[in-house]
Amino acid sequence: MIDIFTHIQKTLDQTPHLLRLGRLFSETVLIEVDGEEFYLTFEKGHLVAVVEGPSRKTPWSFALRVDRDALDKFWQPLPEPGFHDIFGFVKIGRGRVDGDILKLVKNLRFFKEVMALPRGMKGA
Amino acid sequence: MTIEAITGRYLTVQIAGAPRRIYFEEAGQGRPVICLHTAGADTRQWRHLMNDAEITSSNRLIAFDMPWHGKSLPPEGFETEEYLLTTEAYIETVLAVIDGLDLGKPVLAGCSMGGRIALQLAALHPDKFSGFIAIEASDFQPAWYDIDWFHRPDAHGGEMGAALVSANISPYAPNAERWNTLWMFMQSGPGVFRGDLSFYTKDDSLIPRLPTIDTSQTPVHIIVGAYDLTCTPEDAKRTADAIPGATLAVMDELGHFPMSEHPEGFRPFFVDALAKMP
Which domain of life is it from (chain A) (predicted)? Predict the structure, then answer.
């Protein structure tokens, strides 16, 4: 998973429209994959740190909890129905979004496109 | 240079005892087909079909912007009004437009909330129509989101709405049409998407009416996209099963805005639906 988050970090820095969309986004997001925690810290749209958990001390604003198989399907070039969007995970019972959802919704296009950056990447 | 065959005009009708200036577009000749847009959008969703010469050679497609949407202004005094669409107001608006345009008994094609109201009209006013094409239409779904997210002073409701509804667009949709579809949501007026969703996510009055629809008089054909998270194929099937004689088509590679997000993918399903109508 760390490799994929590193890929996201590098690709995001080379994607000007996402940096513009995320310019007001400075938050830590918890991504939990098969129970493993990853804390992604964003600063003005840049992904500045990815820290593996578990941690009870790291504050986060919202969390996406999902299984790895669902994420792999999400990252296919043409995902199956339900795996084509992070809210699809919730709808089909393969994921959960919690925490400060409004913060997510205010930055929804940014966050969705950041999460989709590995789409089509070999090995994702 | 191309000039499209679509023409746009305005019609003023009385709704709830007050005038509404309604923008409508039309193309083609022959059987009238009135086309209803989804929540938070407008007539532009139908432009691909209205530019389809084969379809418009025998069908007169008419689409209109609901009040508050597109080029139809909100009613006078809107500045202090909270926009909340109701089933009753929606029905009154559709009937006023078909009467105002003297359409006789048109086919009604509606998508999403337009599909929902198509089924309400099939139950309550079948004498006014010749048949119903209900797209991404179902009996009822409560919201899986908080509709108040989309109307607040500290964020852009249109941008948030577009980001949310992108969950309902198929990955097979051509990129340009995906973004043209989302642009309409980004452009919708403050509180309009919320006001549409209020009707769509809270009024479940259609459920007991479905078995009363007489498809021997007015056929009902439901079309649903597999990538639609809001009205899923299961929702559409449950709804079709509750209407004696209704037919259902599932589009494997489309989402919630088929005529707009993927016009080529939707075309055969719409042509097939038109063939089922009188």
Answer: Bacteria
CB contact under 8 A, A84 and B170: yes
Structural domain boundaries enclosing A100: 2-115
- Rounded Cα–Cα distance for residues B116 and B214 (Å): 16
Total domains in the fold of chain A: 1
Interchain contact, B229 vs A87, CB within 8 Å:
yes
Query: For residue B194, what are its two tokens?
Result: 């919320």
All domains in chain B, ordered by first residue: 7-275 (3.40.50.1820)
Q: In tens digits, what is the pLDDT along chain B, a chain of 278 residues? A: 899 999 999 999 999 999 999 999 999 999 999 999 999 999 999 999 999 999 999 999 999 999 999 999 999 999 999 999 999 999 999 999 999 999 999 999 999 999 999 999 999 999 999 999 999 999 998 887 788 889 999 999 999 999 999 999 999 999 999 999 999 999 999 999 999 998 888 899 999 999 999 999 999 999 999 999 999 999 999 999 999 999 999 999 999 999 999 999 999 999 999 999 99
Contact of B226 with chain A, judged by CB distance below 8 Å, is answered with yes
What distance in Å separates the CA atoms of residue A76 and residue B95, rounded to the nearest whole number? 45
